[in-house]
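One-letter codes give the sequence; backbone shape is given numerically. An example follows:

. . .
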Amino acid sequence: MILSNLKKLQKLIFENNGLITTKLVEQKGIHREYLRMLVERGELFAIERGVYIASFAWEDEMFILQAKYGKGVFSMGTALFLHKLTDRTPLFFTMTFPSTYNLTNPKIDGIRCVSQISKFYNIGITTAKTPFGKEVKCYDKEKTICDCIKYRKEIDITIMTDAIKMYANSPDKNLIRLMEYAENMGVGDDIRKYMEVLI
């Protein structure tokens, strides 16, 4: 019985890319005591109350931060990196949160935080794979470019300019979506200037 429940739990953890919650375990009819067993064996680590990550996913810091801060969306330079619009590995991770979110804990964890009203926060949320192959939430290329323009004082100008050039030359750019986002976010004129020069 113990072995079959442990195997069920290990399978569930694997299916969830190494992330597991007490809530999910109990929904599947597995007692939370089995989580404690895997923690004692070094197979799981508690990253916050009721949230655990497997040892095989432990080195993926972006995945861990996403697990801890589900409302956070990787943005700005971090999203450029995830979309391969920059070859510079971020020195710190940037995440955008709803304006009502308490940023104390993310800041303690070293996250560069951007706060946006829901009208902007909800635009262009998608997923991308970390260098370790795990999926995390980030903004799509178009929203990321708009954010970089809107918060240009928060990002290295060279990184931003190079990223916009790479985006302008990419075969999968979506200029209609870019302009729609830009108008919504009040950076339409700025984006037009960049695109007129680059395209």
About this structure: The chain has a mean pLDDT of 91.
